[in-house]
Design a protein that fits this description.
By secondary structure, the chain is of the alpha/beta class. 32% of the residues lie in helices and 21% in strands. Helix 7 runs parallel beside helix 8. Bound molecules: iron/sulfur cluster.
Length: 461
């Protein structure tokens, strides 16, 4: 619909996002593709003309949570006399498309993660269709070629998807089924998007991919570039001060990428490197393709390249077949590495994955006990890491105001949130902050240089 000037009538769009940073990125891009149709963001269900649930299949009972949300949206839609487009996107949509339309016929659009560039066309089709419009195939065309070039500003820190999908087929994971085979974007498209993000105010970019270090995008020379080479090239982008990447697989950590950690100052000394278990038996059952010792040796090489590297990981407690001895091996690996951060989960079956039907499913009580032990140790390590920052002067990228008046927030090179007193004009700059104290989840500090003393600022920009 357009008004008399020919511009689309203003409509309101609410996107609810669950799960990983890739979903956060996807939600931003869905908002981008719908903006030309007149959709502007809202936080209110009551005023939304369209609601998108961008779902995640990783969390326990994800599908049921989507259905309970859809139940509430049905009432909201009825209250508006049916004038609301409801879409389910993301991995639950991909995996459960048919069930969604059967159980929630008030849903208008179901779209998998490879189809969101088709949203405008699907919205138009939904307006004409009697039933739901479903797109959960893996379309052969590259969705990235069909997205608008002018991304909405993401702020001082931005995400940029460079790779999607996965060919590794870990026993417990739905990603290879929901996101499809590994795909890497061409280098030129990534560099162009990075420049746009910087022009829109980004100082730090986190490169995203389900298996980001499996990146092998086509370079300008026609050859496949690895992630190390891409990082070196991105480090040349003027105004881009910091680069990060996530999520990595230990098997894809090649020499060039490890060397980049030593040689590229813009590559931040923080790495999320999931290990999942410290037991070789369980790692084999998980189809991870590496041993605990492989992981420990890799950590040694990374720390040799970048001695101040902070490591983060993912751990699963109670994978089928896991014994107390396997759990003890996981605890030993965590102690041996010393993580600065970590995500730990109780194993829960994902339908369609090999682990879901494996023999030796672990009792819930045992899973709970193991997870509690793992989390207590990880919490201790995180607090110790944060406390070890006290007394240092850290370069802090200021992201915006803190929670309290006069307070600013930012992040260290090791991704710790930091709070300190300072003027709002610091937003977007990198300033030296003396760390005064480390807490379990954040740091507090004070500006280390008087603001008029420009010569001491790390950020000359
Ligand atoms: S490598 Fe990561 S994304 Fe791929 S199957 Fe394993 S856990 Fe899933």
């Amino acid at each position: 619909m357009t008004d008399t000037t020919g511009t689309p009538a203003r409509k309101r769009l609410l996107i609810r996002t669950w799960g990983c940073q890739m979903n956060v990125y996807d939600s931003a891009r869905m908002a981008d593709v719908l903006a030309p149709l007149g959709y502007a963001p809202t936080e209110s269900v009551e005023e939304a003309d369209m609601v998108i649930l961008n779902t995640c299949h990783i969390r326990e009972k994800a599908t049921e949570k989507v259905f309970s949300d859809l139940g509430r949206l049905r009432e909201a839609k009825q209250a508006r006399g049916g004038e609301m487009v409801i879409a389910v996107a993301g991995c639950v949509a991909q995996a459960e498309g048919a069930e969604i339309t059967a159980r929630a016929p008030w849903v208008d659009i179901v779209l998998g993660p490879q189809s969101y560039h088709r949203l405008p066309e699907m919205v138009a089709r939904a307006a004409r269709a009697a039933g739901a419009v479903i797109e959960t195939e893996f379309p052969p065309e590259d969705k990235f070629d069909h997205l608008p070039e002018t991304a909405a500003p993401q702020g001082v820190t931005a995400f940029l998807t460079i790779q999607e999908g996965c060919d590794k087929f870990c026993s417990f994971c739905v990603v290879p089924y929901t996101r499809g085979a590994e795909y890497s974007r061409p280098v030129a498209a990534i560099l162009a998007e990075a420049r746009r993000l910087v022009a829109l105010g980004a100082r730090e970019i986190t490169l995203l991919g389900q298996n980001v270090n499996a990146f092998h995008g086509e370079g300008p020379d026609g050859r496949a570039w690895g992630l190390g080479r891409l990082v070196r090239s991105l480090a040349e982008v003027e105004g881009l001060a910091r680069i990060r990447y996530t999520t990595s697989h230990p098997r894809d950590m090649d020499e060039d990428l490890i060397a980049a950690h030593a040689e590229v100052p813009a590559l931040m000394p923080f790495l999320h490197l999931p290990v999942q278990s410290g037991s070789d038996r369980v790692l084999r059952m998980m189809n991870r393709g590496h041993t605990a010792d492989d992981y420990l040796r890799l950590v040694e090489r990374l720390r040799a390249a970048r001695p101040d590297l902070a490591l983060s990981t993912d751990i699963i407690a109670g994978h089928p077949g896991e014994t107390e001895a396997d759990h003890a091996a996981t605890m030993a690996l965590i102690r041996a590495v010393g993580f600065a951060q970590a995500f730990s989960f109780k194993y829960s079956a994902r339908p369609g994955t090999p682990a879901a039907t494996m023999a030796g499913q672990v009792e819930e009580a045992a899973k709970d006990a193991r997870l509690a032990e793992i989390q207590a140790l990880l919490r201790e390590q995180q607090t110790a890491f944060n406390r070890s920052r006290a007394g240092m002067v850290a370069d802090v990228l200021v992201t915006g105001p803190g929670r309290h008046p006069g307070q600013m927030a930012g992040r260290t090179p090791w991704l710790n949130p930091v709070h300190f007193e300072g003027p709002e004009s610091l937003a977007g700059r990198i300033v030296p902050v003396k760390i005064l104290a480390g807490h379990p989840n954040s740091l507090t500090g004070a500006l280390a240089a008087p603001l008029h003393d420009q010569s001491r600022e790390r950020d000359a920009a």
